[in-house]
Amino acid sequence: MKRFGEALQINEQLGNLNEKAIYLNYIARLHYEQRHYQKAINHLEEALKIYVELGLEDSPYAQNIKGGLKVMKSKLS
After folding, report:
1. What's the whole-model pTM score?
2. Domains of the chain and any CATH numbers
């Protein structure tokens, strides 16, 4: 988890938003496995926001994130 966080910081510094979204997705999956559903949801929502800002809301990555959000939100219900 620490390495993903470090990679995320590097990507933020470099301004690579697509990579940032990918790392946010990885971190969200780790939180999901630890049953920290709200943290996972927060990371996925941030990743999805990046794809929307890039105009890629219909991309396979964005669709994957939307599916993940659905699953994780159902865990909170």
Report:
1. 0.79
2. 2-76 (1.25.40)
